[in-house]
Amino acid sequence: MNNVYIDGQTFYPSSIKRAGYLSMLSKDNRLDTHFILRDKYRAGTTSTSGKQKSMDEFYENIFNNAYTFCSRGVGNFSVRFYETLAMGRIPVLLNTDCKLPLDSEIDWKNHCVIIKEAEVKTMPEKIVAFHERLSNEAFENLQLNNRKLWETKLMRHAYFIAIHEVFMTKLGVHE
Questions:
Q1: Minimum mean pLDDT among 32-36, 93-97, 141-145: which range?
Q2: What is the pLDDT of residue 19?
Q3: Are the C-beta atoms of residues 98 and 76 closer than 8 Å to each other?
Q4: Nearest to residue 158, comparing CAs of 87, 58, 74, 86?
Q5: Number of H helices, E strands in the chain
Q6: 12 or 37: which carries more pLDDT confidence?
Q7: Which of 19, 76, 86, 175 could bridge across to 150 with cysteines, CB 3.0–4.6 Å?
Q8: Using CA atoms, how far apart are residues 86 and 146, in angstroms rounded to an integer?
Q9: What angle, rounded to 10 degrees, do the helices at 79-86 and 136-149 form?
Q10: Which residues on adjacent β-strands are paired with residue 93?
């Protein structure tokens, strides 16, 4: 028992919290929400065709909406955050003290709406304010830039190149 490692994270009821946040957002008449609410992950389906259908619906929903709410899961990160960027859309990130990658290289507040968990009750106002600051052209460019960010910094191969560059810079080595 000398090599026992315990993850120090406290329990986080992500599904319960997410449901509450989605409910709050859907009740705000300034926001046009299109949430797909499910009782279980992937609609509880176990068949290959059912899983594919729920996955297609999930990605189609992200694609058809400019903004996507991204809250953490059991771990302190959101896969949906990266899926949203990959689709060239704008994440609305509930920041639960998560660490975003390449934060010395990427000014994340220029790519997404970031809301501190302590300020969650003002989330609708923050989303509206973020959107109202953008001209139509800036709104379209943000989506294009988010896809470009995914391709150049966050896809697996691009991410490891970016990490290597950051590491070499910190070491003072210039290739």
A1: 32-36
A2: 85
A3: yes
A4: 86
A5: 6, 3
A6: 37
A7: 86
A8: 7
A9: 110
A10: 70, 114
